[in-house]
Amino acid sequence: MKTIKVRYFAILREQRGLSNETLQTAAPDAQSLYLDLAKAHHFTLPVDRLRAAINGDFIAWPAPLTEGDDVVFIPPVAGG
After folding, report:
1. Which of 12, 13, 58, 76 sits between 20 and 30 A of 44, alpha carbons compared?
2. CA-based angle 61:16:40, to the nearest 5?
3. Contacts of 22 (CB under 8 A, 6+ apart)
4. Which has the closest alpha carbon to 53: 8, 23, 16, 22?
5. CATH numbers and ranges of domains, the chain
6. pLDDT tens digits for 1-16?
7. Alpha-carbon Rg for the chain in angstroms
8. Using H for helix, E for strand and C for coil, what is the string for the chain?
9. C-alpha torsion 22→23→24→28, nearest 10
10. C-alpha distances in angstroms, 28 versus 13, 37, 42, 43?
11. pTM higher than the cut 0.70
């Protein structure tokens, strides 16, 4: 198990009811973490609609997680 910080934006923040949380996970990578969180919190966006960043750097799915990582899940953003 590792302790990581997760930040949520837009619809994910709304669905989770939090903008960030610190949690313990056994997920080996960011994709597995998102899938675990999506199942637990009923997120509606599939992985292929999201971007993710670890410690401020955008990553490709899957990317390994390590103790203390700061993970951000970023849904598509509409704008005009």
Report:
1. 58
2. 65
3. 3, 4, 5, 6
4. 8
5. 2-74 (3.10.20.30)
6. 999 999 999 999 999 9
7. 12
8. CEEEEEEECHHHHHHHCCCEEEEEECCCEHHHHHHHHHHHHCCCCCHHHCEEEECCEEECCCCECCCCCEEEEECCCCCC
9. -90
10. 23, 13, 21, 20
11. yes
